[in-house]
């Protein structure tokens, strides 16, 4: 029994070292009482055949259940329209609702805002409502959240204002993002490594992803405290991809060690900061930076992925 106790204590200490904290201590940067809402883009999944989409959905929902994450997941309905598979792909959306999460609109085709006039963008928003509204109505619920593609609100202020008025008239609340990040770059690199059967590269990418995401949270926590005087209830953007399906448990553990609890988007948006004026953005930006720009303040450079991850991403794009 004594030997067993020693082995257990050794294992616990090793785990503490692995997570970057000493026995009995929280990691640097941890603070109790932090809150974050998790949002997930590009449902039913960013890529893959039906079998892969099912795997991604199952893994994500399982990880969210284990960490008590109430997510809003944003749908591109064009991904449903595959001959012979629409019913099965629609069932994947139902599984999110069955698990207690909420669905939102991410446009029908993941339309590019800087390549289409406002009228075309509005049409794509309306096309993206059909199935999602039906699924929510089955449960007596309404479609209420919208997420801009690439977080771009318009190529100019007139476009942004016109789109904002259109969305409000249709009953939408825009889903902001304070913790903007390059997760999608890591995800592409991870998926290509998995496709090649390169387990070591996939492991290296996922390990770097977790390190990077902790750096990102540290950055936006500090930015929030400096700009607002306190830490905002954060909103996190992720995607329904293989990287998060395989490693959200580890990411959630990182955030929990930093003192976060997972809250609904509705609760996060009760933070007074989300009522601040925002600057027009023709590129994806954290809402913290949009609020700063609206006050005439300069942006701060955000953490970026290391060059070797960027090169993996670019190589994958060329294949």
Describe the overall structure.
By secondary structure, the chain is α/β, with parallel strands linked by helices. It contains 12 helices and 7 strands. The strands form 2 sheets. Strands 1, 2, 3, 6 and 7 form a 5-stranded parallel sheet that branches. The chain is globular. The chain starts with a helix and ends with a helix.
- CA radius of gyration is 20 Å
Helix content: 40-55%
Q: Report the portion of residues in β strands.
A: 5-15%
Mean pLDDT metric:
91
Determine the N-to-C terminus distance: 57 Å
Largest sheet: 5 strands, parallel
The H/E string reads HEHEHEHHEHEHHEHEHHH
Count the strands?
A: 7
Identify the overall geometry. globular
Q: List unreliable stretches of 5+ residues.
A: 1-25
Helix/strand/pairing category:
alpha/beta
* Number of H/I helices: 12
What can be said about this structure in brief?
The chain is of the alpha/beta class and about 325 residues long. About 50% of the residues lie in helices and about 10% in strands. The longest helix has 30 residues, at about 200-230.
Write the layout of secondary structure elements.
Layout: H1 2-18, E1 34-43, H2 50-66, E2 72-75, H3 86-98, E3 102-105, H4 118-127, H5 130-137, E4 145-146, H6 157-169, E5 173-174, H7 183-196, H8 199-228, E6 234-239, H9 242-257, E7 260-263, H10 265-268, H11 287-294, H12 307-318
Parallel strand pairs: 1-2, 1-6, 1-7, 2-3, 4-5
Helix pairs in contact: 2-3, 2-9, 3-5, 7-8, 7-12, 8-9
């Amino acid at each position: 029994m004594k030997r067993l106790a020693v082995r257990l204590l050794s294992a616990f200490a090793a785990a503490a070292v692995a997570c970057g904290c000493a026995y009995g201590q929280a990691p640097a940067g941890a603070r109790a009482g932090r809150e974050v809402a998790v949002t997930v883009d590009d449902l039913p999944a960013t890529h893959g055949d039906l079998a892969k989409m099912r795997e991604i959905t199952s893994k994500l929902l399982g990880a969210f259940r284990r960490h008590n994450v109430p997510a809003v997941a944003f749908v591109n309905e064009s991904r449903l329209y595959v001959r012979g598979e629409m019913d099965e792909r629609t069932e994947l959306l139902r599984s999110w609702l069955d698990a207690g999460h909420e669905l939102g609109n991410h446009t029908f085709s993941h339309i590019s805002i800087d390549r289409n006039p406002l009228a075309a963008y509005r049409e794509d928003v309306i096309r993206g409502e059909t199935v999602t509204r039906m699924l929510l109505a089955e449960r007596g619920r309404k479609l209420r959240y919208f997420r801009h593609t690439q977080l771009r609100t318009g190529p100019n202020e007139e476009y942004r204002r016109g789109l904002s008025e259109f969305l409000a008239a249709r009953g939408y609340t825009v889903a902001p993002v304070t913790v903007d990040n390059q997760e999608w770059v890591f995800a592409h690199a991870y998926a290509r490594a998995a496709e090649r059967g390169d387990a070591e590269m996939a492991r290296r990418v996922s390990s770097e992803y977790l390190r990077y995401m902790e750096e990102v949270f540290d950055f936006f926590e500090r930015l929030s405290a400096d700009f607002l005087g306190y830490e905002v209830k954060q909103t996190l953007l992720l995607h329904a991809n293989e990287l998060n399906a395989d490693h959200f448990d580890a990411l959630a553990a990182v955030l929990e060690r930093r003192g976060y609890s997972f809250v609904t988007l509705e609760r996060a948006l009760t933070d007074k900061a989300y009522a601040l004026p925002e600057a027009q953005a023709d590129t994806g930006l954290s809402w913290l930076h949009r609020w700063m720009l609206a006050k005439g303040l300069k942006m701060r450079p955000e953490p970026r992925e290391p060059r070797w991850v960027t090169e993996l991403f670019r190589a994958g794009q060329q294949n």
